[in-house]
Amino acid sequence: MGYVAIDQTVLGIPRDVIDKDNARLMDAHLADYEALAVRLARSGIDIEDIVSKLMSLEVGLPSWGMTSGGTRFARFPLAGEPNDVYEKIEDCSVVQQLTGLTPRVSLHFPWDLTEDYVALRQFGEAHGMGFDAINSNTFQDQVGQKRSYKFGSLSHANPQTRQQAIDHNLQCIDIGRQLGSKALTVWIGDGSNFPGQCEFTDTLERYLESLRAVYAELPNDWRLLIEHKMYEPALYSTVIQDWGTSILCAQALGDKAQCLVDLGHHGPNVNIEMIVARLAQFGKLGGFHFNDSKYGDDDLDSGSINPFQLFLVFNELVSAERRAKGNYNPSYMMDQSHNVTDPIESLLNSARAIAGAYVKALIVDREALKGYQADNDVIMAHNCLRLAFETDVRPALATARMRKGGAIDPIACYRASSYRALKAETRVFNPNLGGGIV
Ligand code: AFD
Ligand code: MN
Ligand code: MN
Questions:
Q1: Ligand 3 center to residue 290 CA distance, Å?
Q2: Do the strands 237-238 and 191-192 form a parallel or antiparallel pair, or are they unpaired?
Q3: CB of 438 closer than 6 A to ligand 1?
Q4: Residue in 242, 259, 260, 263 with CA at minimum distance from that of residue 250
Q5: How far does CA 327 lie from the centroid of its chain?
């Protein structure tokens, strides 16, 4: 398939809007950047190294996070929001234009079904967007579907229902191949609401048997990402409830199967950064769904509730990357929903939080930390992390964005472009008031 160059004329934010907004902020930005460079140099860190590392960070966008939705109870449609996968890609491309951090979108089927995937791939490329992991959906029924997933999908007691779920995953692989994706993410809602409803061991056996059939059809350069979740929609037990079951399944399936960690899918107060370290140590950390939460699977913007946890997760990721010596490639993606914000603005905020956590993890003085740990100097070891976390790294983020053609202040620039208001004039307004199920 031919490579389609980015077409500047189709991008959502005109170049001059970005340039003008950057010019407005430039003097202050350069002064702040210089101050940070001096501050980091004092610790022996070259800010240019940090910026160039940050410029190679890539985080996928969730197609299902481009529209309003996100609570289980109601959806409040937003004028100018996307109606189909093409319009979602247009909006993803705006986030990429302004941040340079998000060059791929993760699609979700059947929500993103369309006729021609060659055309979709070219549309993506023209908008500067590639395709990240494909997400299958066997956690809800579709109109016209033969067999219901009410009592499960890949682990269902009935083999025909399981086969229908397997076939859907195979269709996802087929679509993903056409788009240039390299992974399939499987999250299922299977589980039970009442003790006695299902047998823990039988359901996991059936799940594994189904996933083996999917795994067998996975292209060699693909990964199968298993996403665990402790509860919801199954409220008593879920089949893939935690990272333990996830890694057991990934090990049972083979090398191409790995675990995906969604930050919102754990019990309260679980030490997620430690899970990250464990999965990485055993070569099974395949991917991430970044978001934030106060109580459960809240799908809030990254860094909005617990930025220290996000930093500690990146601290483990950076340390795993160093240990792996080139053999490290988990897919970083976002998974969030928006009920009260413009999705693009929320994703811009998440992009900043993720990039910020990464940079702060990069500036941790790891050698000093090892020394403090060896000496059992607890306060200094802890402060070593705190010092990095408390450093204001925003000027480094802005520089990385600008060098990729983006904005010093992405949200201000997005607002200056009136993108959403202009889309409200041309896009169909769909007053679908259903519950936002993600
Ligand atoms: C649901 C799940 C999970 C998944 C997402 C997209 O909780 O996070 O990644 O849907 O399928 O929110
Ligand atoms: Mn997720
Ligand atoms: Mn979730």
A1: 10
A2: antiparallel
A3: yes
A4: 259
A5: 21
Burial of residue 56, with CB atoms counted within 10 A of its CB: 0-12 exposed, 13-18 middle, 19 or more buried: exposed
Q: Which ligand has the shortest distance to the CA of 234?
A: 1
Is pLDDT of 1 > 50?
A: no
Residue 301 to residue 310: CA distance in whole angstroms:
11
Mean pLDDT, rounded, for 268-296: 97
Pocket mutation for ligand 1, best pick of 66, 105, 261, 262 (most atoms within 8 Å of C-beta): 262
Contact 292, 305 (CB under 8 A): yes
Distance between CA atoms of residues 286 and 46, nearest Å: 30
Cα-to-centroid distance, 420 and ligand 1 (Å): 26
- How many Å apart are CA 401 and CA 101, to the nearest integer? 8
Give residue-wise pLDDT tens across range 153-208. Answer: 999 999 999 999 999 999 999 999 999 999 999 999 999 999 999 999 999 999 99
Give the SS3 label for residue 94: helix
Antiparallel, parallel or unpaired: β 134-136 and 183-186: parallel
Amino acid at position 33, single letter: Y
> With a 6 A CB cut-off, is 289 part of the ligand 1 pocket?
yes
Pocket test for ligand 1, best of 61, 72, 227 (most atoms within 8 A of CB): 227
Using a 6 Å cutoff on CB, does residue 297 contact ligand 1? Answer: yes
* 3-class SS letters over 55-83: HCCCCEEEHHHCCECCCCCCCCCCCCCCC
DSSP 227: E
Write down the pLDDT at residue 74: 80
Distance 358 CA to ligand 2 centre (A): 20
Higher-scoring residue by pLDDT: 187, 438: 187
Q: How far apart are CA 108 and CA 112, in angstroms?
A: 6
* Spatial CB neighbours of 209, under 8 Å, sequence gap ≥ 6: 162
- The alpha-helical segments, DSSP class H, found in 238-342 are 243-253, 272-281, 307-324
Q: What is the pTM of this model?
A: 0.97
Residue with tokens 């500047």: 8
Does residue 112 have its Cβ closer than 6 Å to ligand 1? no
Express each pLDDT in 350-392 by its tens digit: 999 999 999 999 999 999 999 999 999 999 999 999 999 999 9
| pLDDT attached to residue 40 | 98
Rounded CA separation 252/236 (Å): 25
